[in-house]
Amino acid sequence: MPPAEGERSELLSVPRTGVYAKGSLDLVAVYDSLSSAYGDGSSGALATFMGIARSTSRTGKRVVEVVIEAYVENAELELRRIVSEATERHNLTFAGIWHLLGPFRPGEPIVLVASMGPRRKGVMDALAEMVERYKREPALFKKEVYADGTSEWVEE
Q1: Average pLDDT for 142-152
Q2: Rounded to 5 degrees, what are φ and ψ at 151?
Q3: How confident is the model at residue 7 (pLDDT cuts 50, 70, 90)?
Q4: Lowest CB count within 10 Å: 27, 52, 85, 101, which one?
């Protein structure tokens, strides 16, 4: 499969930006595989963000599970668009967003965002942009399940 927009051909071992069922993709392994991309010296910076299920809600309730659902077709398109636009705007050599779907216990990783490029500022700016945009633009939905047995769909 050819690399997605924003992905270098040397990173064919890195999964394509998108949404994946929990258990079908190991975000820590994806993070580890990014090291193959900067060995040639063309990139001066790599920045990553890993979103992790929290044990406490914004209102202080104890969270026992976070459930992530998506309108997959929309989420896939939007994540790829975010990556493509950030790559172009910030002159990146690589960018990616990998979001998992399913139930998560507190402490489990849910999403990984990465940006790589020649200069630190562009890489950091792109990372911040992609993190903020993946929270708003794709059709991704988050439900918190609380220790008291109640649950709530939450917006970021």
Answers
A1: 97
A2: -150, 165
A3: very low
A4: 52
| Look-up of token digits 């988050």 | 142
What the chain holds in terms of domains, given with CATH numbers, is 17-147 (3.90.1170.40)
Indicate if the pLDDT at residue 151 is higher than 90.
yes
Q: Give dist(CA 65, CA 42) in Å, integer.
A: 41
Mean pLDDT of the chain: 91
Q: Which two tokens stand for residue 16?
A: 């394509």
d(CA 106, CA 111): 13
Indicate the pTM of the whole model. 0.90
Q: Which helix (H) or strand (E) holds 69?
A: strand 63-70
